Amino acid sequence: MSRWPITPLKGHIAEVSIRKGETPAEVLSVTNTAGFVRSLDVFDKQVFSQDASNYKLVRFNDLAYNPSRINVGSVARCQFPEGGAVSPMYVVVRCKDSLLPQFLLYFLKSDIGQQNIVHRCVGAVRFMLRFGDLEQIELPLPPLAEQERTVRILDEADALRRLRAQASGRIEQLASALFHEMLANASDVTEVPLEALLSRIDSGWSPVCHDEPAQPEQWGVLKLGAVTSGRFIEAENKALRPEERAREQLEVKAGDVLFTRKNTKDLIAATAYVWEARPRLMMSDLIFRLVPSNSGQLNPIYLTYALKEPNKRREVQSLASGAAGSMPNISKGRLLSIRIPLVSPALQEEFAAHVAEIHQLEAAQAASRQRIADLFQSLLHRAFQGEL
After folding, report:
1. Is residue 151 located within the same domain as residue 240?
2. Range of the domain at 103
3. β-sheet with 271-273: strand ranges across
4. 128 and 167 belong to one structural domain
5. What is the CATH number of the domain that holds 39?
6. Using one digit for the tens of pLDDT, what is the confidence trace for 172-207?
7. What is the distance between the alpha carbons of residues 219 and 36, in angstroms, rounded to a whole number?
8. Are 332 and 285 in contact (CB under 8 A)?
């Protein structure tokens, strides 16, 4: 039980619905992790309407949230001094003098706040948190001086969490940088068709699955996001229905090189090396498994980074085709025609060894990042129990 008085948000917040009209204002987006971002800084194309006159104006310190996605963290505080404009689908919230905007944001991101959000939306046909629902949420509300102290403590913890995430991001870029350096310094680089380097390409299949994730003892189908993210253990892969028979020859194993042959334009042609696979998972029909020949010419880790190289990936993506309204698809024949820059087997093995070391460092960083994230959530919980 909190030592602070519990009060509804009603009376401490107001909804703001001022339309942009002809007012000069940059279009902003709300992300789950980075908060408010300038849309044109994040997306490589304009994702908002050409006519933004109906967009809602936000000013510095306003909060905005997606009413159907606030349960997964789509809420943020505007930190741009000049403000901006957001899609009319968002709810824009302005705090009154009794409530610090950052204090409210931390509350909504906490487990206590999330429980309140879900509770206020129980019984809805589609998840939706309207402003009126938000007003009914109760929170522990200390005096402003205590709110400021709590925000300072949480800001420091959040800064540490973000620094750890940034460090992990830089480590992920290291293997690609090593690949480019190796090619630049190698004296014997040759361009070889992929067809000459593979013994085969395996295709997955599309069985009927349950909606819920597969448990370790169940057969399941690999989630496409496991390949695009390179995280195979954490992915919530769908469970195979009992009437479907598992195809064990399609089981994903450590050492596999997987390639997304069919996806959206931006996610197609993603390649990932499987360092560790959860047993009893099969490839879906959206995925190829690339199997190097036994000639020793091609190391699978080297192949992964040769296909991940941005220019090469764009070249592969350009080969995708599909009927209007369908996802782009890359055929085996077109993929096999791609030419791979090949260095000596010794250089490939050296590169693969360095990447394995980087992977071990990534795993340690991921564990550290999770510990810090757990501690931050614990701190949020204590903050809104009045225990800081």
Report:
1. no
2. 6-141
3. 198-203, 287-292, 257-260, 271-273
4. no
5. 3.90.220.20
6. 788 899 999 999 999 889 999 999 999 999 998 888
7. 40
8. no
